[in-house]
């Protein structure tokens, strides 16, 4: 519960750059800054801010980035979506039937 309360104040900023099928994503918050490089459809390892280890990939479906990630500790799947809607980035996660959505304003 404490991690969730802290996460609500992380002040996360996301920068996404695309070069063909290769993406660079920089996530900067009050707690950590990481830079992630991936190629569409290629699996990679990723660690959430709470330390949860995952393996998965991103694909492009229309104008939407769609991620499928499997937790290494329990094998459960997290679906992630990132989509530009107007002047905002809408990020949606679905895990065990629960959907969460976060909206980022262009800075």
Gist of the model:
The chain is mostly beta strands and 107 residues long.
Which key phrases capture this entry?
107 residues, mainly beta, Lipocalin, six-stranded antiparallel β-sheet, 1 helix, 63% strand, lipid binding, ILBP, Calycin, Fatty_acid-bd
- The sequence of SSEs as H and E is HEEEEEEEEE
| CATH fourth-tier homologous superfamily | Calycin beta-barrel core domain
The neighbouring-strand order within the major sheet is 4-5-6-7-8-9
**Beta-strand content estimate:** over 45%
Total of DSSP H or I helical runs spanning 4+ residues: 1
Mean pLDDT: 90
Main β-sheet: number of strands, strand sense, barrel status? 6 strands, antiparallel
Plain-language structure description:
The chain has 107 residues and is mainly beta. The chain has one domain (13-105): Calycin beta-barrel core domain (Lipocalin). The protein is 6% helix and 63% strand. It is built from one helix and nine strands. The protein has one helix at residues 2-7, and strands at 13-19, 22-28, 33-39, 44-47, 53-61, 64-71, 77-85, 88-95, 98-105. The strands form two sheets. Strands 4-5-6-7-8-9 form a six-stranded antiparallel sheet, with no helix packed on it. A hairpin with a 5-residue loop joins strand 4 and strand 5. The termini are far apart. Belongs to the calycin superfamily. Fatty-acid binding protein (FABP) family. It comes from Lepidothrix coronata (blue-crowned manakin). Residues 2-103 form the Lipocalin/cytosolic fatty-acid binding domain.
């Amino acid at each position: 519960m404490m991690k969730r309360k802290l996460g609500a104040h992380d002040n996360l900023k996301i920068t996404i750059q695309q070069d063909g099928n290769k993406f660079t994503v920089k996530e900067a918050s009050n707690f950590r800054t990481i830079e992630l490089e991936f190629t569409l459809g290629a699996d990679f390892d990723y660690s959430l801010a709470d330390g949860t280890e995952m393996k998965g990939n991103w694909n492009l479906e229309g104008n939407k980035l769609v991620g499928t990630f499997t937790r290494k500790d329990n094998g459960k799947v997290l679906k992630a979506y990132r989509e530009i809607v107007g002047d905002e980035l809408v990020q949606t996660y679905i895990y065990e039937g629960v959907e969460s959505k976060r909206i980022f304003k262009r800075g």
